[in-house]
């Protein structure tokens, strides 16, 4: 998914806002090109396979859930990378799907799981 912010933002401020919104205690990032963020590419989960597509699409930042160490190399001049954690990047999926199902199938009985399935812990 690619979107455009209403106003361009400082890269560090943007990543801090993302971390706060998604409850991320340790958002991993590359150095990045040091420009303002306006065009945002996002893929929840293990989205590293879309990194080159985000660059081709002219995104200023690529947000995803997980990415291998070596994929960070070679992108500092082209795109800011923010990696928030697999679970953290997908945590709102249940709510989004519930909204869609409620709208499209109002007669459908729905039960949303509230079980946290994230096996990863962060030492603070």
Automatic annotation (TrEMBL):
One GO term describing the cellular component: cytoplasm
The record ties this protein, via Gene3D superfamilies, to: NIF3 (NGG1p interacting factor 3)-like
Instruction: Kindly give the Pfam families that the UniProt entry links to this protein.
Output: DUF34_NIF3
Q: Does the keyword Methyltransferase apply?
A: no
- Matching SUPFAM superfamilies: NIF3 (NGG1p interacting factor 3)-like (SSF102705)
Q: Which terms in the Gene Ontology molecular function aspect does this entry carry?
A: metal ion binding
Name of this protein: Dinuclear metal center protein, YbgI family
Q: Which organism is it from?
A: gut metagenome
Question: Which classification does the entry list for the species?
Answer: unclassified sequences, metagenomes, organismal metagenomes
């Amino acid at each position: 998914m690619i979107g455009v912010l209403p106003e361009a933002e400082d890269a560090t401020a943007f990543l801090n806002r993302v971390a706060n919104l998604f409850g991320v205690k340790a958002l991993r990032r590359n150095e990045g090109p040091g420009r303002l963020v306006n065009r945002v590419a996002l893929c929840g989960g293990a989205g590293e396979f879309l990194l080159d597509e985000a660059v081709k699409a002219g995104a200023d930042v690529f947000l995803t859930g997980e990415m291998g160490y070596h994929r960070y190399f070679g992108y500092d001049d082209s795109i800011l990378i923010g990696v928030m954690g697999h679970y953290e990047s997908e945590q709102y999926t249940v709510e989004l799907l519930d909204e869609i199902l409620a709208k499209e199938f109002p007669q459908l009985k729905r039960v949303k799981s509230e079980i946290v399935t994230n096996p990863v812990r962060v030492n603070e």
